[in-house]
Amino acid sequence: MPVPTTHRPPVPFPKDIATHPLLVVDYELIAARNESEIDKLFEACKNLGFFYLKNHGVDPDPMFEMGSECFQLPLKEKMKYEQGDSGSSFGYKASGACMTDEFGNLDTPEFINVSKDDALSYPEVAHRTYPSAVENRMPDIASFVAASRDVSLTILRSLTVRLGLPESAVIDKHGSEPSPSELRVIRNPPPKDLAAALEKAAIGAHTDFGTFSFLHSNMTGGLQVLPPGTDKWQYIKPIEGHAVCNLGDAMAIYSGGLLRSNLHRVVPPPGEQGKYPRFSCVYFTRPAFDSILEPLDSPVVKEAYKSATFKVPPGTTSRQWFTRRIAGQRTKNRTGPETWRGSRGTEHVPEAV
Questions:
Q1: β-strand partners of 292
Q2: Beta strand 50-54 with 24-26: parallel, antiparallel or unpaired?
Q3: Cβ within 8 Å of residue 275, ≥6 positions away
């Protein structure tokens, strides 16, 4: 489904920019339990952890509209709902509130993050309140969150079976409340000096925290991945009607490292698109706060974990993992390079910024 024309740049993604090819997965076939399509999904998640998803049926338009209204509010008003520096991500994040690297360079986008729990329990408050532009559209947000959650859990269920586990093994990790799962709408403004900003991270190199990320853009480039075994960042081309999906740290941990939570970043859009704002919205599926992050119990997972490049301290909870990573990125929490390094996930390449 096309995003609103008011949010699109008037120029397309450049044809002369090299991009990294992603496998295209058909959600309708995954939902129908088509074995060959699930095989394709599993290969995509083993090799890179990123893929395009078509025929998912989720409309991002109302979320772009909500985000646009929210970001137009006065900064003083938005800051009443700021996330804070303690490791929570629900609420507003201003430009420059987080770092993009260990040197303390500042990020440029603003976010509005809405908790799944708040959206689905509205008008009851599960975690916090939000700016008026968000509260007024909470029924639309709840619909988007519910649809995105269904898509995400269907994908996770298919991957779980391929890991030699009962299909509910990963889903059960998300079953109890409260949850860190959330909707995020992002606006990255055009840089004042486009030439100087090219290839400079707007959002620094990172892996996602949770199990699954379901991303929609306004057909503007800027997302890049660092494919395994390379040192060159590569653009992901936005494709009409296709979400860009990726696995996060939790799924890498549950699979013993067999499935990838790959490094990615956001830079200013290439070419003429760089003169316009970049909007995106993403639904992050994350394990319940009190669930334990650990390799799950199957021969496939146990064998993979023997050669995993990461190890997770026994008893680590989703809340501990999430809070450490969020707090360590906050500009006000920086004491030195070690702050950023301490906030990294299952993959970290120090020279990749």
A1: 317
A2: parallel
A3: 9, 190, 194
